[in-house]
From TrEMBL:
The lineage of its organism: Bacteria, Bacillati, Bacillota, Bacilli, Bacillales. PROSITE patterns: HTH_MERR_2. Pfam families: MerR_1 (PF13411). One of its GO terms (molecular function) is DNA binding. Residues 24-88 form the HTH merR-type domain. The keyword Repressor applies. The keyword Repressor applies. SMART domains: HTH_MERR (SM00422). Keywords: DNA-binding, Repressor, Transcription, Transcription regulation. InterPro entries: DNA-bd_dom_put_sf (IPR009061), MerR-type_HTH_dom (IPR000551), MerR_fam (IPR047057). This is MerR-like DNA binding protein.
Amino acid sequence: MDKDVQKLNALLDFELLNKLIVGIGEVSKITGIPTRKIRYWEEKGAIQSEQDEEGSTRRYNYLNVKKILLIQEMVDEGFTLDAAIIKVEKRMRTLNEAFQKLANSISDDN
C-alpha cells in the first residue's frame, strides 16, 4: 500500500480517533504551537481540554487538536483570533450537521 494512502487511513481509523487523547506538551510538539498559546486559546473558549482533576495536565482529544490546527491556519492567513474561533466553530458545526445527515441516511436505509 502506498505510504500516503496509509497515512490517510489514520484519519479513517475511528477507533484510534476515539482513543486519541494527548497531553498539551505533545500537542505543542506535534503542531508547533506553544503550550502558552494553547492554554490562552482554552481560556478564550476556543478549545476544551479533558482534565480529570484540578491541576492535572491538560489533555486534548482529536476534535480539539483539529480545532487547534484550523485556528492556527486561519491566524497565519491573517484572521484575528476571535474571527478564527468563530469561523472554526461554524465549520465544525457544518461538518457535524453534514455527517449527522449522512449517518441518519445510512440508518434509514437499513
